[in-house]
From TrEMBL:
Keywords: Membrane, Transmembrane, Transmembrane helix. It comes from the Bacteria. This is Uncharacterized protein. It comes from Enterococcus sulfureus ATCC 49903. The chain crosses the membrane at residues 30-47, 54-73, 85-105, 112-132, 144-167.
Length: 188
């Protein structure tokens, strides 16, 4: 498969994911739809190295992730961050709860190394998954090196639809609250 065809296929998958998300008003998240399309593509006719053929492999990811983190850091408003302290506390408690559950229940089911390899993507996302995978390869634990990426994908396949549903519910709550405030202000 040529470079142009591979690039077009990847961009088409991203476009279809965005289109589906827009049409369903984010009931079907774009990342979820794109992930499903890629899985179907890899199961059927995509070459296994299509991402590397186009140049979006690990080298590209290792360049883009730090740039994205710096960009997000520069866009962050510290005053707003202080105002959102409850959300930060909830997020930190979620991380602590995930770690505690994995280390207690997870170690009852799997060995300690497997649990340790799977926790970072659950609490730290893509960056944590890439770092853990690289470190496992460096430690010659090749059998566990793919686990963080699999955990990230599985977490996403379950998490994206749930997140979309909860955000839609929150949107409805905020929308009715704003409408009530507007109607109250109009009546006064």
């Amino acid at each position: 498969m040529g470079l142009f065809v591979s690039f077009t296929l990847i961009m088409s998958m991203l476009f279809i994911g965005e289109w589906a998300s827009t049409k369903t008003k984010a009931v079907v998240p774009s990342l979820f739809m794109t992930a499903v399309l890629f899985v179907l593509g890899f199961w059927t006719f995509f070459p296994k190295d299509i991402v590397e053929q186009v140049g979006f492999g690990m080298t590209f990811a290792k360049i883009c992730v730090p740039l994205t983190l710096v960009h997000l850091g520069t866009k962050m408003d510290l005053r707003q961050l202080v105002d959102q302290w409850k959300a930060i506390v909830i997020a930190l408690l979620g991380v602590c709860g995930t770690i505690a559950l994995c280390l207690t229940i997870g170690t009852m089911i799997f060995d300690f190394r497997t649990v340790i390899a799977s926790v970072p993507p659950l609490v730290g996302g893509l960056v944590a998954a890439l770092l853990m995978s690289d470190n496992l390869k460096a430690m010659n634990l090749d059998t566990l090196a793919a686990l963080p990426i699999y955990m990230l994908m599985f977490h996403g396949l379950l998490g994206y639809p749930i997140t979309a549903m909860l955000l839609k519910k929150r949107r409805q709550t905020l929308k009715s609250r704003i409408q009530n405030q507007t109607s109250t202000a109009t009546n006064n």
